[in-house]
Amino acid sequence: MKFNSKYLPIIIGATFALGTVVGSLMNAPTDDQFLAKNYSKTKLNKLIDFINNEYVDSINTDSIVNLTVDNILSKLDPHSVYIPPSEQAEVAESMKGDFVGIGINFYMYKDSVAIIKPIENGPSAKAGLKSGDRILYAGKTKLYGRKLPSDSLFSKLKGLQGSEIELTVFRKSEQKKLKFKVKRDVIPIKSVDASLLIGNNIGYIKINRFAETTFNEFKTGLTRLKQKGIQSLVIDLRDNGGGYMEEAIAIADEFLKDKQLIVFTKSKNGSIDKTFATKAGSFETGKVYVLINENSASASEILAGAIQDNDRGTIVGRRSFGKGLVQREMDFNDGSAVRLTVARYYTPTGRSIQKPYKKGNEDYFKESESRIATGELYAKDSIKVADSLKFKTPKGKIVYGGGGIVPDVFVPMEAEHGNENVGYLLQTGIVGHFVFEELDKNRNAFAGDNFNTFLAKMKSSDVYFKKFKNYILMTGLDLKLDKTKALVNRHITAEFARQLFGELYYYDVILKDDAMIKTILNPKK
């Protein structure tokens, strides 16, 4: 399959748009009061009945209803959406924070299901499956040579907790077929990717979304870092599109003193609901830094706004996405759902950070492209702020509303101006696939190496950088990587570290030369 590099920002934007569908969610209602009244017949009902009974050809009226709902919601705002059953199950699972399965990371490599890495201590790892194994059969169901979509594959591998499935795999390193009996179990879907030390007494926690389990995951990581004596904490919200606002609020409470305002919402009828910090905060005095970028949205902006407006910490990075709308979910019997915007949220100083959406959804989600054109991703002076939306924090710091959180300390995008597509490329899964395929060719290349030996080996040669250049050319992407060689090499090395040693080693590599982290560790005098 060939790609045109000019479409990379669109691919990333589309992925991010799906992420922000989750938005900032409130508890679901128990009935349909937000979408329908108990009228005897609506114009829409009559039309559907008329088509169903009288139209000359047979037609699936359910598809008409779905299309109608989509069209209605598209006229409201970008975050009021209809989610069909096939997507709703996946979104709900992601936000729940776990599922029942066999515990592997995989992708379709050529015509087979290739295991990138079994999840540590998961069912597959315990059963003896290894990285590089190809799953040929799940029970009696053939999985290879069929180009099955991911949702079909998941359905074959999932099941009831404690149920057993026999997997037939091909192990390339041994050139033979093997059979394993795997007992399915609950597999966590982590929303906190890492919690580790990055400097003297400085902790780091990376949050990828705000799911049901996020606060508990965060609190576990924070507790562990406090035991190691941290005095400062970096919360990384880059590329975090949001999720449950209650989870973001609970995390903000860890840093704010009793009765400090975290966020407030305002509904259609003007009613205001304020949420304050409690006495439960466990890190109310240490230094706090929050990392954001143009893809940090919704619940991420609630947390960043609460820290900034209360003068509690320093926001580092680039202007956030700008989503200040709150959704409420209504589920339907067919497994679909509607998420309807029911309120706006405001940061403690009274800011709405919602960016304009009057020009339509496509323009709204592609707004980040205009930030490239204006140079905003490279210079703080290019950020457009309106004086009419100026607010003051309790200590007199000026903050702005009207379109995202503007950071206190600006850090430009690492890719050079004009090479943005390299940055977008590194956000896709292509680096992970490249590394898997390289390891798959020779899994003994790093056999016996410890982490330091591995790093020395990667630094001593450009072989994988050259191979990666050829790899992306073969996919049809015509990108010039030489000017961003150091950045690309860092991502390649980090991905090798992840697949060879584990997730924390990925962050050990990727953060060492990260521009935002370096700004915190080595502030300008």
Automatic annotation (TrEMBL):
One of its GO terms (biological process) is signal transduction. InterPro entries: ClpP/crotonase-like_dom_sf, PDZ, PDZ_sf, Peptidase_S41A, Tail-specific_protease. One of its GO terms (cellular component) is outer membrane-bounded periplasmic space. Residues 175-356 form the Tail specific protease domain. The keyword Manganese does not apply. The chain crosses the membrane at residues 7-26. Keywords: Hydrolase, Membrane, Protease, Serine protease, Transmembrane, Transmembrane helix. One of its GO terms (molecular function) is serine-type peptidase activity. It comes from the Bacteria. Belongs to the peptidase S41A family. This is Peptidase S41. It comes from Flavobacterium crocinum.
